[in-house]
Design goal:
The structure is a single chain. The radius of gyration is 18 Å and the shape is extended. The protein has a two-stranded antiparallel ribbon with strand order 1-2. By secondary structure, it is mostly helical. Strand 1 and strand 2 form a beta hairpin. It has four helices and two strands; from the N terminus they run ββαααα. The protein has one domain. It starts with 7 loop residues before the first strand and ends in a 9-residue tail after the last helix.
Amino acid sequence: MNHVEEYVRGNVHTNGIENFWSLLKRSLRGTYVAVEQFHLDACVDEQAFRFNNRATKDNPLTDADRFALAMSQVVGRRLTYAELTGKNQQTEAF
């Protein structure tokens, strides 16, 4: 979208993605402070989940609702310490 000409075309506008990036940058600087590169995907996924499941007029979610939704999606998934710390990454020998 060219901001010189327009900001909105029907239901399509740039405010949503600008809001998402603003919230992501705020969480990276405030909550996580220093994020390693191998953790960045997880941080972005977490913020996307929060953004997509935020409380709106059309979707009045509470924190308990969002927690229950998150827990329903972790059944059968396992995160090991090696994955969490990035120690399972294959390093190439030079």
